[in-house]
Structures
1.
Amino acid sequence: MASGGITALGATGEEAHMSKVIHATVRAASVSDISHILAEYSEAIKNLPLAESANLLSRPYNEFKAAVENGLFFVIENATGNFMAGAGAFDLEVPGAKELGMCYVKKDWRGFGLQTLLLNIRVCAATLGQVPDASMIADANRSYAALITGVKPANDRSAANTAALGFRPLAAPPPALFSACAACRTPPSPDSGRKCCCDFFYLPDSKRADAIEKSLRMPDWIVTRNDVQLIVSFKIRHLLDPDFRKALQDIVSELRNRGNPESSVQHE
Ligand SMILES: CC(C)(COP(=O)(O)OP(=O)(O)OC[C@H]1O[C@@H](n2cnc3c(N)ncnc32)[C@H](O)[C@@H]1OP(=O)(O)O)[C@@H](O)C(=O)NCCC(=O)NCCS
């Protein structure tokens, strides 16, 4: 992966000159993590400048808890278990779509592409979330939940990262996407003509296949920035368990072979 000044190195990369190597892990959060994750987000909302904290979209507690219980909220932590970043995939009130949201990378860890890492992981996990049993792969007519994400127009970094992964504008967002607006701290002004402060994007099948394939090939997330190398090890069942990997690989083939390249969401 290469993004701006970032270079991801393989295991044989040019580490020799590195002055510092930092190890981290990414894993699905468990229910016992809920309070400390929420504390991190509360602290961010309290301490970040409004222009930035406004990008950290609040979600109703029940949706967050359900994402954790579904194994669809992920945290990146350093070697001593301190929170570095988090993000989730949320069920919407309508079946057939999931929203990727709540991505937050703590200031000290920005620039290592962790939003992109968390996007890739959520694409895999949220896709597999529809396939609890690998034997269901034989069903060629199965549809996967549409993957949708909301980004505020001013959030250039998120817009760039989601577009780079392949997200495209969603012309007709399902009404269920707006239910989280009730908890929004920064709703659009009434004269803006906007229904929601976010623009919505969906991931086409071909880009979903790309993201899954790329994730399956990634041994670790290794990114060098300035003189620091960050190595994020995967502790993610979706990407480690051979049955789940096989299921994902089969899904890639199926997504690539589809006649209709898109899911049922309307798009531009
Ligand atoms: C948006 C966010 C997740 C991106 O974090 P990230 O994955 O570390 O970003 P990237 O690795 O893609 O960063 C690429 C470059 O942008 C810079 N950058 C990242 N976030 C930035 C921010 N909020 N403000 C200014 N610059 C930022 C990085 O330092 C890096 O700069 P470099 O190329 O000079 O080294 C993070 O800024 C964040 O948590 N912001 C607050 C909440 C938020 O916006 N969440 C997303 C909601 S959709």
2.
Amino acid sequence: MTAKSHQTPDFFFNTNSPEETFALGKRIACMLSQGSVVALEGALGSGKTQLVKGIALGLGINENITSPTYTIISEYKSSDSSLYHIDAYRLNNERDFEDIGGPEVINSNGISVIEWSGRIQKSLPENTITVCIEITGQSSRLIKISGVKEI
Ligand SMILES: Nc1ncnc2c1ncn2[C@@H]1O[C@H](COP(=O)(O)OP(=O)(O)OP(=O)(O)O)[C@@H](O)[C@H]1O
Ligand SMILES: [Mg+2]
């Protein structure tokens, strides 16, 4: 029975500390391969960058990851690929993203993780992995992942 095979299930996680969100990022990194795009949604201070730090370490990147709020796109080299950390917060729309060469970056062989991805929703590829982080308490977060078959 393969009727639903085109659909990808959603996965839900509750984290109770920044460290747990970081650890989930490391776990997500295992699911990524060249060209993967991860869209990160969630309010200010929900933990998007915290998750990216875990993803980076999971990809073997030991550099300190900082928010690319002003640079918009930061590149970190891993042994076999690049991680592009994108913060779309200051972009108004897809046009702004095109002006800075964003589509070329997310359609490259590198792995892209995008904070505030809703700003550039129409630029995201169809197979984008989406992570939504919801603040459920001072140190608790509900994290929903879609676009992966397993995690
Ligand atoms: N369970 C948790 N997971 C992640 N962060 C948590 C958690 N509990 C508390 N925090 C705190 O929430 C903050 C998350 O900050 P972070 O910079 O990762 O958010 P962000 O979503 O990237 O924000 P912004 O939209 O400003 O870029 C940190 O101060 C972190 O210590
Ligand atoms: Mg951030």
